[in-house]
Amino acid sequence: MAYKIVASQCTVCGACEFECPNAAIRLKNDMYIIDPKKCTECEGHFDTPRCAEVCPVENTCVPAG
């Protein structure tokens, strides 16, 4: 599975982009998106997905499924 960013809640702060170990997060049309093909939920890197940990807005980086 992968994570997604809830666009209506995203403040476009950029914190998640630099924390992603798989470079799965990028800015597209002034909004951050997560490439589900690259997202591994940080398995093998961290105990929990970093995007969800560093996001200042609760429940903005959430499981896509």
Architecture overview:
About 15% of the residues lie in helices and about 20% in strands. The protein has two helices and four strands; from the N terminus they run E-H-E-E-H-E. It is globular and about 30 Å long. The model has no long low-confidence stretch (mean pLDDT about 95).
Brief summary of the model shown:
This protein is α+β, with helices and mostly antiparallel strands and 65 residues long.
List keywords for this structure.
65 residues, alpha+beta, two-stranded antiparallel ribbon, two-stranded antiparallel sheet, 2 helices, 4 strands, 22% strand
Question: Helical segment tally?
Answer: 2
Give the radius of gyration.
10 Å
Distance between the termini: 7 Å
The low-confidence parts are none
- Estimate percent helicity: 10-25%
Query: Structural class, from secondary structure content?
Result: alpha+beta
State the oligomer.
Answer: single chain
> Per the principal axes of the C-alpha atoms, what is the gross shape?
globular
Indicate the mean pLDDT.
96
Give the SSE string.
Answer: EHEEHE
**Main beta-sheet strand count, sense and barrel state:** 2 strands, antiparallel
- What is the number of beta strands? 4
- Across the major sheet, the strand order is 1-4
**Relative strand content:** 15-25%
Give a topology summary.
Elements (H helix, E strand, L loop, with lengths): L2 E3 L9 H5 L5 E4 L2 E4 L15 H5 L6 E3 L2
Antiparallel strand pairs: 1-4, 2-3
